[in-house]
Amino acid sequence: MNHIISPLDLSVEELDKLLDLANDIERHPEKYAHACEGKRLASLFYEPSTRTRLSFEAAMMNLGGKVLGFSDQDSSSATKGESVADTIRVVSCYADIAAIRHPKEGAALVASMASQIPVINAGDGGHQHPTQTLTDLLTIRSMKGRLDNITIGLCGDLRFGRTVHSLIEALVRYDNVHFILISPDELRVPSYIRDGVLQKENVSYKEVVRLEEALPDLDLLYMTRVQRERFFNENDYVRMKDFYILDAEKMKLAGPDMLVLHPLPRVNEISVEVDNDPRAAYFKQARYGVYVRMALILTLLEIA
Q: Is 129 a catalytic residue?
């Protein structure tokens, strides 16, 4: 039985196959409308989520399946002290596949080790968020036509941003990907990514503080919000939250084909005036998230 805990659980070949399936679902949704009839997805969300939870649920329903679960830990037996391992053992009796989001790093791995059904990590603390990474890769490949030979700027909270960490780990497997890491010193990418991934794989990167300096060179700009829930100190959060704001004026510095991605939700790091710019891809990105989760469900259930 397969689980998806990290984006690296898929080889490059498996990833290409998954993205091809997602593109086929986008083009021919009717072909897959009954693929999961009689199947159930358990949606186990121990922390708040809008896009990830709803896109998993939409994905399963688009495939003709059903969804059960909870949307925060206060409505689960976690409030009574039940462990993640025991919860997934019970849920394995009710569902065919599970998606789990948890604030603690490693929780999804613990669940997978106790589970009788495939487990998809829907985000564990500041660690991994593989289905967001798969969404990002599908968006880039669909809109740029490739995952190699790109310069990507990652901007904002690179220290706590699990989407950033997962995306870097996935993209270093492709040829000629150059990273520009844009953050204040306090939110720089952690050493386990800088030393353990970028330098270890001999990948080209540079770290800058000013967004304006990076924009002219980018094929892609991946914006992230400064995450209040990852900060221990409210004063540090307040000081950092408005460090980067992408607006129409800054967009003038970027090339005509640069795409702006964002895992959402945004707070104020992308001005609403950018939404109408044809280079703004973040709402399309949210749509691609449903297709990639449909493809993942079909793959793990061995239906496609």
A: yes
